[in-house]
Amino acid sequence: MKEQRPRILVIDDEEPNREALSLLLKSANYQVAAAGTGEDALVLLRQAPFEVVVTDLFLPDLSGIDILKWVKSNAPQTSVIVITGQASAETAVQAMKEGALDYITKPFNFEELKIQIAKALEKSALVAENIYLRQQLRGKYKFDNIIGNSAAMQQIFARMERIVQTDSTILILGESGTGKELVAKAIHYNGPRKDKPFVAINCGAIPAELLESELFGHARGAFTGAVADKPGKFEQAHNGTLFLDEIGTMPPHLQMKLLRVLQDQVVERVGSDKRLKLNIRLISATNADLEEEVKNGQFREDLYYRLNVIPIHLPPMRERREDIPLLAHHFLRKYCREMNRTLMTIADIAMLRLQDYDWPGNVRELENIIERTVALTAGDHIEVRDLPANIARLDTPANPFDPGCPRIPAEGLDLGVTLESIERTLIRQALEMGKGVKARAAALLGLNRTTLVEKIKRLKLES
Asked: Where is the Response regulatory domain (predicted)?
């Protein structure tokens, strides 16, 4: 594929200067467009993107500063170089303040301009990459990337939609592996702070003696080994979101310091008395019962109420079994793609085993199991035998009549009536095991769903 040459827009009302600069830039292998007025330049800027704009400061209609402001508002990935023959400290300062990459006075050396354009292209590429990565993050953490059609998950989505545009403090509650950080990121990347930092820290993964410095930062010389000033997570999250995972493990003395930070919106580094003003949104999470810990004196009651302004309870997998097929197929697609495999399928009975399992590790455990199964299964179809033994339950008797197989009585029997009675009993059992879902019951009986529905109607099993 042919590499696209960088596009440069030259704006100068003096035609000889405009044409000369355009020719020089074309000879340097750039694509060049030119305009003699500010309005003509804006027409070109609206039509197509440019990596660099080189504009004269004084134009007959608009000024180069006007062009600069428009570019910064509408095409932030485009760099602007301002050129003028009437230089002054005031205009130079204004141009740089408004975001110009450089301010060059006439007459200028073309080689010097080429160096500045190379810098501008490097900066434009970095800005464009940053914008792309942010778009990728927003896509990754869209609400519809949190999988779930269950009533419990729909309630969570509705609550997230209501709170995403607020700055209210949020407490996410749920067992390990339920996706608490995923929800926190979705709230951040869909809210007004989406272009600002999202900073996460697991309070339970850092030793208590180091956690204070990690959260609040430290000043040089605050303790042995503190050879330089270091900002903490609170400072890093300024204007963005701070996510405190496993907040229930925080030591009591840090709970008090955290409470002061939330009340005053200022932070002091360890070993410093300088107070730094903060603007953050706080989201915390825990798998502990904080109310119980408050009662037991393990967690400050005043801090609990500060954190628990808007609670979000994430249900464990065993309480949203209807979401398991959605999640399983989502992870199947993900890992088949990552391992360059044909998209695999799951046998109905294998899916039933996944739905019957209680998933103590929740979504994280399910993802790990699917990844392992994709890696180890030889074919493109996952059977029960391909699942881990504790999920597959291969030791379950295959014959539903063993050991209680019915016997022929001495007086004989009506085979048709007996078989109908057995069929009726098995269908009822399958419906009970499948929690009323006919597709699950049909899979348990080795039938198509339509066949099972016909049998239910014939045997008049529906109420």
From this structure: 7-121
Rounded Cα distance between 203 and 382, Å, is 39
Question: Both tokens of residue 314?
Answer: 């994430």
**Residue 286: C-alpha distances to residues 57, 214, 255, 389, 404 (Å):** 57, 19, 14, 31, 48
Q: Which of 207, 189, 206 is nearest to 198 (CA)?
A: 189
Phi, psi of 282 (to 5 degrees): -105, 125
Beta bridge partners of 56: 83
pTM for the structure as a whole: 0.60
Q: How far apart are CA 317 and CA 324, in angstroms?
A: 8
**Tens-place pLDDT, residues 390-429:** 898 755 444 444 444 555 666 676 777 678 878 888 888 8
20 pLDDT above the threshold of 80 = yes
CATH of 318-392, one of 3.40.50.300, 1.10.760.10, 3.40.30.10, 1.10.8.60: 1.10.8.60
For the domain made up of 145-315, give the CATH fold: Rossmann fold (3.40.50)
